[in-house]
Model the fold of this input.
Amino acid sequence: MKRSIVMATALTVTWSLPAAAQTKDANAEFEKFRAEMEESNPAELFELKGEELWKAKRGPKNVSLAESCDLGQGIGKVEGAWVKMPRYFADADAVMDGERRIVWCMTEKQGFKFADIAKKPFQGANDNNAPDITNLVTYVASASKNMKFDMPLHDDKVRDAYETGKAMAAYRAGPYDFSCNTCHGADGKRIRMQNLPNLSSPEGALRGVQGWPGYRMTGGVMLTSQWRMNDCFRQQRFPEPKYASQAVTNLIAYMTGNANGQMYKGPGIKR
Ligand code: HEC
Done:
């Protein structure tokens, strides 16, 4: 199949990047490389697995997500769902981001145990495969490729989540008295080689939500926004949030709200 040949090539190119990335022009080089890679992002492999998982009858209840899971656009519909979350789901009486909603469907509709999913929700550097939930998220996200972020901020409950996320981003605590905004609250901040997006600006917020789920070349792993948030809590020297928690949804709502109206390009690719 042509697609897999393209991807195999992309993967080979990928491995040689990190060494070169140490140079001064790494950022510019990487941006160019990423633009070239976008058409054959290895994320596609995970999307394909996710699509199979979405359609397969699974779990103790032996039902598929395609025939049971409503991401806000009707049962089984994935097109455009990603860019319209976080949203309020009456059946769960909660505002949920995409990953949290898929986890909810897996537990409520398919009968999986939350504790089993939460045991290892992210791909580790030595894992050959990403967890099912990561593949599912990548598939659902890819079905919003080239659509504009359109989180329903006019909904009071979503607005609440957004405002709570905004307050969380400004909340300073921990041994260094850091908040998210210490690192992400102004333009032009950097740590080591990395430009830190200003999440309060439309451009910075877009970068924050565009990147994840994303294929990370370091380690060759597919990671979600939930992972990104956990890793930043760690950078902030805060205790990591519980998997698929409301706190993470609130932060994602804050970023997605700020990114609203801009085009989502599909699963990201990161260094
Ligand atoms: C100590 C500094 C620090 C703090 C505090 C911090 N982050 Fe980060 N954040 C980083 C670094 C470093 C990266 C990686 C940047 C890269 O890979 O280019 C990052 C990346 C991100 C990204 C992905 C950006 C991208 O380009 O893909 C998001 C979104 C994000 N952080 C959100 C948050 C949120 C929300 C908080 C608060 C809970 C937070 N961060 C707290 C340092 C921090």
